[in-house]
Amino acid sequence: MDNEPDHENVEQSLCAKTTDEELNKSFSLEASLSKFSYIDLDKELEFKNDLIDDKEFDIPQVDTPPTLESILNETDDEDDSFVLEDPTLLNIDTIDSHSYDTSSVASSDSGDRTNLKRKKKLPDSFSLHGSVMRHSLLKGISAQIVSAADKVDAGLPTAIIRIKLCDSVWVALVLEVNMEPSLPSVSTMTAHDFSVALLKDRRVMGVRTCESRCLFSGSKGEVCCIEPLHSKPELKDHPITQFSLLAMASLTKILVIGLKPSLKVWMTFPYGRMDPSSVPLLAWHFVAVHNYVNPMLAFCRGDVVHFLLVKRDESGAIHVTKQKHLHLYYDLINFTWINSRTIVLLDSVEKLHVIDRQTQEELETVEISEVQLVYNSSHFKSLATGGNVSQALALVGEKACYQSISSYGGQIFYLGTKSVYVMMLRSWRERVDHLLKQDCLTEALALAWSFHEGKAKAVVGLSGDASKRKAVVADRMVEILFHYADRALKTCPDQGKIQVMEQHFQDMVPVIVDYCLLLQRKDLLFSQVYDKLSENSVAKGVFLECLEPYILSDKLVGITPQVMKDLIVHFQDKKLMENVEALIVHMDITSLDIQQVVLMCWENRLYDAMIYVYNRGMNEFISPMEKLFRVIAPPLNAGKTLTDEQVVMGNKLLVYISCCLAGRAYPLGDIPEDLVPLVKNQVFEFLIRLHSTEAPPEEEIYPYIRTLLHFDTREFLNVLALTFEDFKNDKQAVEYQQRIVDILLKVTVMVENSDFTPSQVGCLFTFLARQLAKPDNTLFVNRTLFDQVLEFLCSPDDDSRHSERQQVLLELLQAGGIVQFEESRLIRMAEKAEFYQICEFMYEREHQYDKIIDCYLRDPLREEEVFNYIHNILSIPGHSAEEKQSVWQKAMDHIEELVSLKPCKAAELVATHFSEQIETVIKKLQNQVLLFKFLRSLLDPREGIHVNQELLQISPCITEQFIELLCQFSPNQVIETLQVLECYRLEETIQITQKYQLHEVTAYLLEKKGDIHGAFLIMLKRLQSKLQEITRQDENTKEDPSLKNVEETMVETIALCQRNSHNLNQQQREWYCGCVVHLSSVPFPVDKALWFPLLEAMMAPQKLSSSAAPHLHSEALKSLTMQVLNNMAAFIALPSILQRILQDPVYGKGKLGEIQGLILGMLDTFSYEQTLLETTTSLLNQDLHWSLCNLRASVTRGLNPKQDYCSICLQQYKRRQEMADEIIVFRITLTAVVRMDCRKPRVKIE
């Protein structure tokens, strides 16, 4: 549908080339669709008494041929609801090359209402499209309805029907009510169910009679909507009209049948699963698709509208192709075409939605509840005959309003209980005027502009070609703009702050400027509009400021001189000179007062604008240069630092020179082609002048080139380099090139006491080297000058700017200047000047990579980069084995230097490239400190070396050598290092730690070996020695470091006991020998004695002190002892601990009071743990009870399903069970409900 032509004015004649011929031949224009009438058939329908056979339908032989009644009566239990009949049987295209690739109806409109693909509600479109529909009350008819109801008790109206005679044949949907004839040719008809019949008028002997034939009987199914295809006289010869197509909608599907030349079913279309209360809707209309006009059938049931395009091919067969679906967020009860581009939808809450069919954009929403629409509920429920209709049809009747809405000629009539309303599309002018009446001027202009650009929707009233339509709309917009300007002046607040007035005009004036420029009415903008706004000074200022963005974007180039003058004065008054400069360079020079602008630019230092005016207004390119040189030259010659403003001016000068030499205009645009050579010659002649105009006597020669070199040597030479790129076939330009080079050399090198820095001289010769290295070079430079530059840069007597001189020489060599020097002399001078980067550059050219290592090691700024260099040489392909070997040998010669520089990098280098030569490297490292750093970086993974330790295959002796060095230089880190080290032998390592008397380390290794007893003895012995130290201290000891050592040793011993107690049983944990030194004589393994010897060791100092004369640290020792008791209580039963204490000979002799504190502390701990256990158990029980209560409540809770019909058969179930009708409700979503009768086997599921 996106490919459909944009025919907005479907109600008017469409002007196009060869309109008459194309309309008659292809029916491709829909301009006159509003004039369509019903088709005048030329022949009477020929009825056949026999049933439709296979040959008539061209159907393969089957047992029971399908009939119209059987098709209507089919149950729709298919999953995929968008399934047309067999294409070979029905001769229908299911896929069309021009149709949209959309999903099926089933995928977008399933029976589960929660899965419907609904669009989000569109925003209010009033400000975008205005009021699209005009609705009015038909007062005369409404008065007759009310009068009839009041005076003759005629009752309420039930239908508004437009019956049209077509070749004496009628198609009627017969309801179960009596219908009075509206024409003499229709007789009274009565039916007890919904059926479809054909009525035919005949004249026999001058008497009119009516013959009828039942197309479908209501006993076989219920058709609630029919829609014949009508055509207007202009399309009476359309190929489709000869089939007399009729669309019918039942509760399960739609059908399209052809009445002529014989009765034939062309298409069936099942709905699929949907809301059973939704109303089936049908509507035909001729639309233009791909420059051909064909009928399109719109049908919907619920909230999805489907469009089917009907075409006839050359063979005479009808093809039906799917078009784009329209997904809505509301359920429909009426669908009406108002023209081929616009549809009007009525939802179930009586809101009208005007939709553009192609874009699916909602144009307007109108509330029509005031109509009090008449519904056909009583007819569909057949209340007059006892309600002998199905529940499904009665449910549909709740929303049915087929006979209450009728459309004709672009008008829609709505029948209310007491009135009749008519609605139609407003013309484009009415829509604009409607916004104006509501004082929405901005919205009115926006809407009018959309009409002007042909982007508006539902356009009515615009005729003619595009230019004519634009002219009509533009005239109306001009009128609105004048009104808008008057309103802006009238509504301006007379009093208050100036900011309020500015804000008022800033909200309104830009709108006027925008639309005047969009309409290309600069004449109007700068005359009438400007004169009108100039009445108010604030409005005038805002107007002038509004022009700025358009000028800067080159959308507004020409301005009248008066407006331009006012614009410059306004910005001058507001001190916005930068804005003035930006505006001038975008303006047409003819609109400027050149003399005024030049004076203003020079006074306010607007150099860009000044250059622009000189270049464009007077074709003068040298005068601006002279003016800028006069500003920056004096401070540069005096050796002063330039101000920021002067730096900006110098940069502008360089850019300006570059633009002139490149043929570009400054600051934007291009120099006219005929002036480009002249401008280049003028600039070159200017630059090479020997002296400036009005030069003082002390001025040096070539002042302009000298000034540019002093200002920015590198950028000036870049400008020349870019210019020289174009000097290939121009003899005059080549001469200028050589002349400028000679001058550059003369002012920088060929003078004594040059004031140029080494960097500036280097930049010059780098520039020359690049020019000389070009294959088409025509420059000549004396080689002696390069030797002078080399001497100048490598002067050993000048230590200043060492890095700068080296970098300049390096750039010179890299630019191709090396061909100008003797290499051996260059290397000697570079080494003498300590230019190691130059040496590296030269050695690399000769592939002497080993010598480059010396360059890195000697260069303090780059010495750490030597590791990356060695790694690259050894790993990157392209180097020979001899070169790699020489580099490695050089690295080995400097291994001590490398290790001292970066031990980690050196170790990583060795491990990566020569892991098998680690022992050789160790032998070369005679310094023990360096060897220790190297081995630690190599073996300790915490050092960050990125090498797989498993691939190193280091022998245990190397690791043990590192451990011995670690014991010497960092004994405090031995244990934590051993925890991460691998590949060492325990016995040899234990001997090393014993050699250096590292008892904690020895205990750790014994524990790791499995000798728990030995490790414990060492720790216990250290603890006892620490305790003996504090018992010998007196009260005069001020510092007490030994007590802290006791605590640390005790904590380590406790940790040892805790780590190993898990592997012992209760008896082994409790076992105790009175004297630790006799542990070897116990009857079972001595490594089981842990906690009681530790407790005894902690209590021993307390036994020596009496209560009368307590020890200085007695309280601290009691605290530490209590800590031991608390930790051992986790592994040894409390009664065993108490029994052991009470059995002690010391305490068994009446000294129980001395350990009273220990016992009470143990009991407090026990009480706390018991309370904690009880509290935790109570919380767990409460949580379990709460979970069970919630589970029981959720299981026993009642269910309230969200839908009141079965998801399989779509039939409603009764919430109040009067019969044994069981249903299944799925608890997960509460949306799926299934009747037990629809589920097999029948299993009741709760």
From TrEMBL:
It comes from the Eukaryota. GO terms for biological process: endosomal vesicle fusion; protein targeting to vacuole. One of its GO terms (cellular component) is late endosome. Pfam families: Beta-prop_VPS8, TPR_Vps8. InterPro entries: Vps41/Vps8 (IPR045111), Vps8_central_dom (IPR025941). Residues 542-724 form the Vacuolar protein sorting-associated protein 8 central domain. This is Vacuolar protein sorting-associated protein 8 central domain-containing protein. It comes from Eschrichtius robustus (California gray whale).
